[in-house]
Amino acid sequence: MIDKNQARRSFARAAARYDEVAVLQRETAQRMLERLDYIRHQPAVILDVGAGTGEATAKLAARYRKAQVIALDFALPMLQQARRRGPLFRKPHCLCGDAEQLPLADASVDLIYSNAALQWCNDLNATFRELLRVLCPDGLLMFSTFGPDTLHELRHSWAQVDGMPHVSPFPEMHQVGDALVSAGFADPVVDVERVTLTYEAVPGLMRDLKTLGAHNVTRGRHKGLTGKGRLQAMYQAYEAFRRDGRLPATYEVVYGSAWAPKQRTEDGVTSISLDMFRQGLR
To answer: What is the 3-state secondary structure of the chain?
Structure first.
């Protein structure tokens, strides 16, 4: 389980320097934006869930110039960075809130975009249900998150030292797809790729994770100071992964997209939008 309060504080502290090290996040955001090139969808309202410093928010606003774009993040300093990034004539609308409890009305959004954020949610099924709740019929959800192979080198190296969790848990790709179906989404598509960053030494990786605010915030984590001896033992274990003079840090990136159905069924009752009913009478 993720300690949400600790995660929020961690990202709040990271806001000022986040963009300096968000290489992978920037790359996955761009790949998601490129996927939108192949989708015929003209949203009027866009929600960027886990917007961070708002780089993707600004690009969504530039792509869909007539749309209202909302940046949502649970760390207020991240949204303050996003406000500074937006052009003077078109600052993004910012909401400080949690993806698991969105402060938005039902069927109020046409496109939900979420890059590298859903792994900070404790209940993926409930989160997808919440995202579907705010999507209009025929609305699109597009997201990326991380799979269980992420940082497996770091996880393995810590396991040689102690039995405490040092890397946050991540769902399998098939679990992500099953959660989309269970939530009620239509036409889900999920795929995965592996991206490897390399470092000269482990402390470089650890500094990047800390600067990102993405260090271990699981509730079962060891909350005391990590002794120098344990750190050195972990560094030594990590050396088993060294190739060509560099240490790898693997990320399993899971991409997903799905549509809100035109008709929604809950507890055996099918809901049809009034607009669809009117179209049927024409």
So the answer is: CECHHHHHHHHHHHCCCHHHHCHHHHHHHHHHHHHHHHCCCCCCEEEEECCCCCHHHHHHHHHCCCCEEEEEECCHHHHHHHHHHCCCCCCCEEEECECCECCCCCCCEEEEEEECCHHHCCCHHHHHHHHHHHEEEEEEEEEEEECCCCCHHHHHHHHCCCCCCCCCCCCCHHHHHHHHHHHCCEEEEEEEEEEEEEECCHHHHHHHHHHHCCCCCECCCCCCCCCHHHHHHHHHHHHHHCECCEEEEEEEEEEEEEECCCEEEECCEEEECHHHHHHHHC
Q: What is the pLDDT of residue 279?
A: 45
- What is the pTM assigned to this prediction? 0.88
CA 144, chain centre distance (Å): 6
The pLDDT value given to residue 30 = 96
Residues 234-272 have pLDDT tens digits of 999 999 999 999 999 999 999 999 999 987 655 544 444
Backbone φ and ψ of 192, nearest 5°: -140, 150
CB 89 within 8 A of CB 24: no
pLDDT tens digit sequence for 177-230: 999 999 999 999 999 999 999 999 999 999 999 999 876 667 655 554 466 888
Which domains are seen in the chain, by residue range? 4-264 (3.40.50.150)
What gap in Å lies between CA 17 and CA 201, rounded to an integer? 21
